[in-house]
Design goal:
19 helices, seven-stranded antiparallel beta sheet, alpha+beta, three-stranded mixed beta sheet, about 15% strand, globular, 2 domains, Protein Transport Mog1p, Chain A, about 400 residues
Length: about 400
């Protein structure tokens, strides 16, 4: 995705051969070292990789994930309404990443690759600087350990990805600015231009264009919002910002979207989802097994709401998020699914507003939708089964997928 979002025309150079490209590595790393203050601990091997080999690499990574893990993630996305019921998560992810990638850094092998499909010249150069920024960060804050803290289904994991990609994006454009005679920082107008649009909604990128909003936003968020986050922290802390975002990583996507919340160390809550036993009774609950659990952040709720309500209204409602946790259960016999979650908000009024908007989400994602009750307690049914939705002070609880 990264190379497709860039303003490559900012580079005052002409196209050059691939062999010349890798001759730039030492100069690029040296410049990044000057900007960050990080020593260069070792050279970074770099090579070209065919698009076909990269696709096989992505496909193998997907296959490394357990079948149950992929199934659980896909069902969770479908239960919330992030993707349609016929969405094949594994296949579509491979197609999407393979279409969008220009380069990547393998932090296990400590090696970076530029795809041969990336346009020679400016686009290759930008991609190379971005991956070298990853490689230099990895020498001081091992990216493998950083990215694998906690559960991959947690909102904090998305926040850490935004740290990693946002910083590399910022450093790339700081390098460009410095190389063109300016300061080693990113001008505000450049950030605005880079983040105002994904730039990929066209026939050149058919997989991205047709992808559900959540999949698009999940690709763009770490770069766009991560870039703005790194810029805000840099202007507050200066050079120490490059280390701090790793040593004191943000705990939520809310802290990425609102850097002031990060600086104030605003911690998310960790609510307990409603128990299956409270909904089904002890005997019936034993017929289910836990399939997945995790947390949802402001980013998740913002995208979810924006699919079914006006964009500004959805983003505003999501900004009142304080914490949310979910559990997904599967019936041991008929494989039906039940989703439970609890979302906490900054006031009872915000919770009531979310319930109102979430009912519009439930209606929008169902071909057949019925509800009864108003206010604090609402029940009904949708395509995934019966549901119970309730407001309890500043929290909203939901149980979905019950048998009618």
């Amino acid at each position: 995705m990264f190379a497709r979002l860039l303003l490559a025309a900012l580079f005052v150079s002409t196209a050059f051969a691939q062999s010349t490209l890798f001759q730039q590595v030492d100069e690029m790393v040296s410049a990044l070292s000057d900007i960050t203050g990080w020593r260069i601990e070792r050279k970074v091997p770099a090579e070209m990789l065919t698009k076909e080999k990269f696709r096989r690499y992505v496909d193998s990574k997907m296959k490394d994930s357990s079948r149950e893990q992929l199934h659980a993630e896909e069902v969770t996305l479908k239960m919330f309404g992030f993707v349609p019921q016929d969405y094949d998560l594994a296949k579509e992810t491979v197609d999407l990443v393979s279409e969008q990638a220009a380069a990547f850094y393998d932090y296990n092998k400590k090696r970076l690759f530029i795809l041969d499909s990336t346009t020679e010249g400016n686009e290759q150069r930008v991609a190379l600087v971005h991956e070298l920024a990853h490689a230099l960060a990895d020498q001081h804050h091992p990216l493998g350990k950083f990215m694998h803290k906690g559960s991959p289904d947690d909102d904090a994991s998305t926040a850490r990805q935004a740290v990693m990609e946002g910083q590399a994006t910022w450093l790339t454009w700081a390098y460009v600015s410095r190389r063109n005679g300016g300061e080693a920082s990113v001008p505000a107008e450049m950030i605005e231009e880079l983040t105002k649009s994904s730039g990929s909604d066209n026939t050149e990128f058919p997989v991205f264009t047709k992808a559900p909003l959540y999949m698009k936003e999940s690709l763009v968020f770490p770069y766009n919002e991560g870039l703005k986050f790194q810029d805000a922290i840099f202007h507050r802390l200066g050079r120490p910002a490059f280390d701090q975002v790793f040593t004191r990583a943000p705990q939520s996507t809310q802290q990425i979207l609102h850097p002031g919340a990060y600086l104030a160390a605003k911690k998310p809550t960790e609510p307990e989802p409603p128990s299956l036993q409270s909904a089904l009774g002890k005997k019936e609950a034993k017929q289910y097994r836990l399939l997945a659990e995790g947390s949802l952040g402001e980013f998740d709720f913002s995208v979810l709401l924006r699919q079914y309500v006006p964009e500004q209204q959805g983003a505003e409602a999501a900004s009142h998020w304080r914490g949310a946790s979910y559990r997904l259960y599967e019936n041991k016999r008929d494989k039906s699914d039940v989703l439970t979650y609890r979302a906490e908000w900054d006031s009872p009024e915000s919770a009531q507003k979310f319930e109102e908007l979430y009912l519009r989400v439930m209606r929008g994602r169902s071909k057949k939708f019925e509800k009864s009750g108003e206010g604090a307690a609402v029940s009904g049914s949708g395509d995934s089964g019966a549901f119970r939705l309730s407001v309890k002070g500043d929290a909203v609880e939901s149980i979905e997928g019950l048998k009618n």
